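User: Sequence in, structure out. Go.
Assistant: Echoing your sequence, followed by the structure tokens.
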Amino acid sequence: MTEQEAIERIHSVYPTGRKNGIENMRALMARLGNVQSTLRMVHVAGTNGKGSCCAMIERVLREAGYKTGLYTSPYIERYNERIRINGVPVCGERLAELVERVWPAVEACRRDGYLITEFELGTALAFVDFWMEKTDIAIIEVGLGGRLDPTNIITPQVCVITEVGMDHMQYLGGTIEEIALEKAGIIKKGVPVALGPQEKAARAVLLAAAKGKDAPVIDPNAEHVTQTSQSVTFDVRLAGETIKGLTVSLSGAHQAENACAALGAISALRKKGMSIPLDAVRRGMANVRWPGRLEYFGHVLLDGAHNDPGVRALCAYADAWLPKERTVLLTGMMRDKETDKMTERLSTRVRCAVCATPKVPRALPAQELAASFERQGVRTWAEPEASRALERARSLAGPEGIVLCAGSLYLIGEIRTLLRQEKEFSDVI
């Protein structure tokens, strides 16, 4: 089996898969020997920031000398990005080997009435890879929600819940409390839970859920936060000690909040006997990368903000570092997002906008999105194809301007591929 055949096999289950709570995943992993039960893991949920938080935890643990696994979603450019060993995406040959190993279990499940989804298959591939690679610890990002997410069959060393906000309401509920309750579903009896900063209502739900499971809560706060255009520095009090001047090499003040959730997880792992020196924490935070999140490619800035909370964080960064008169927005969005709120926020931060249509069925057509910006009084162009949209945005920005690309991770992936073709860039995080 080739890499392309493996990816086609993975995608082939999309039309036939049927969600069934976590029962599909239990059935699939039972047929694979429940190898996930042998792994030491960190489980990360949240609305925004969970990918960045995962990357921070992974990099700190790697700097401390541990062999790490990392499972995240969605990917930006290539499926392989979702499964990483020591920060390196799984190679094509290995991905094919994993699919060949796992596929008989998928077929056995189908014969028994369990129709495995694409995300469930991907999760199983990650678990098997981390088991085969004998990772010291793996960081697992929740796909959607928490309680019924396929990753929620694990019992981790520590759970992490980053900021909870309004997104995926059609699946998780229409209030912040309902969404928080779904996220809280990853909390396990007696397992520590690290929290990122939360709205009052969400925090109350999470604390109640943790109390009900006798799960110790760790929730450090960042103090004295300062930032540059490409990093953030802060102080934090953690496990009785104050860490001063901790620098995270990710942009935006909100990354200090994500770092606090990551540091809470590190603190819990230390209490469980893992050796993670302070200098490894500093190195890990200083060296962490996370593609497509306030990531600069020359005069093009990519950000994966794709819901209203994410756009709020992006706008805070724009207010500090992106002069409106020099900023051209390149954007595409999904139909099922709060697009009116997002366009309203972004409209006040940019000189003009170029709208593209991401290559997914849920995408909002460029012309419809452009009309939303025009209602806000923003001069806008509709260029459905990503390459043409990038060309137009660069032309409008000129040599002294900035192209801000945001609104959809799918569009970010298309644009990042085009930019990488211009200049080689490492995938290692």
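User: And one key feature?
Assistant: The chain has a mean pLDDT of 95.
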